[in-house]
Automatic annotation (TrEMBL):
<keyword id="KW-0808">Transferase</keyword>
<protein>
    <submittedName>
        <fullName>CoA transferase subunit A</fullName>
    </submittedName>
</protein>
<dbReference type="Pfam" id="PF01144">
    <property type="entry name" value="CoA_trans"/>
</dbReference>
<dbReference type="InterPro" id="IPR012792">
    <property type="entry name" value="3-oxoacid_CoA-transf_A"/>
</dbReference>
<dbReference type="GO" id="GO:0008260">
    <property type="term" value="F:succinyl-CoA:3-oxo-acid CoA-transferase activity"/>
</dbReference>
<dbReference type="InterPro" id="IPR004165">
    <property type="entry name" value="CoA_trans_fam_I"/>
</dbReference>
<dbReference type="InterPro" id="IPR037171">
    <property type="entry name" value="NagB/RpiA_transferase-like"/>
</dbReference>
Amino acid sequence: MSGFDKVVSDYSAAMSGLESGMTVIAGGFGLCGIPEGLIAQIKASGVNQLTVVSNNCGVDGFGLGVLLEDKQIRKMVSSYVGENALFEKQLLNGELEVELTPQGTLAEKMRAGGAGIPAFYTATGYGTPVGEGKEVKEFNGKPYILEEAITGDFAIVKAWKADRFGNCVYRHTAQNFNPMAATAGSITVVEAEEIVEPGELSPSEIHTPGIYVNRVIKGEFEKRIERRVVAKENN
């Protein structure tokens, strides 16, 4: 089994090979399903000039937001960026390049990259600034714009359970962008809540097959709530 065992014991080994200037694709949606420890390791490593592809950039002081504190991110490819004041400041100051991408298009860019599809046509963004300068083609009388797929040097994802071979299960909405991100990295690193032995996961419940995964590490997660909303008491 040792030849197929992808578990590493520390975060330094998990992110070995990450260098300044690389592209990192990160799973998660807001603070839900984010690989907290892997992000912390990127911060601790001190690498910079990164291009980060993720639905958003976390919040101030948590998630991907911590990478803004030392200006480790050069470019952010995202679909939602409204919860981070430091992100806004760096964008307006010209310190951070941002490529806003419709959410479904971003997901498909990752999925296409992982599937070896270099580009695809979508109606989303046609006639808006998103579509400016992009090839347009009509299908059945409807215009579509050409979007290029995304791949990265590293993909970092968070799983609920993973086995030693890298097969992954995501829990509920923490699935979000993680399955697509996992396929699109040259090196894919999974941070899991629980690592189980091969055979303990039913084949029918596996979301990401281990063939896409290079390294697995067991993490400890704070699971911070991004915005708590509770019902008011009835008087």
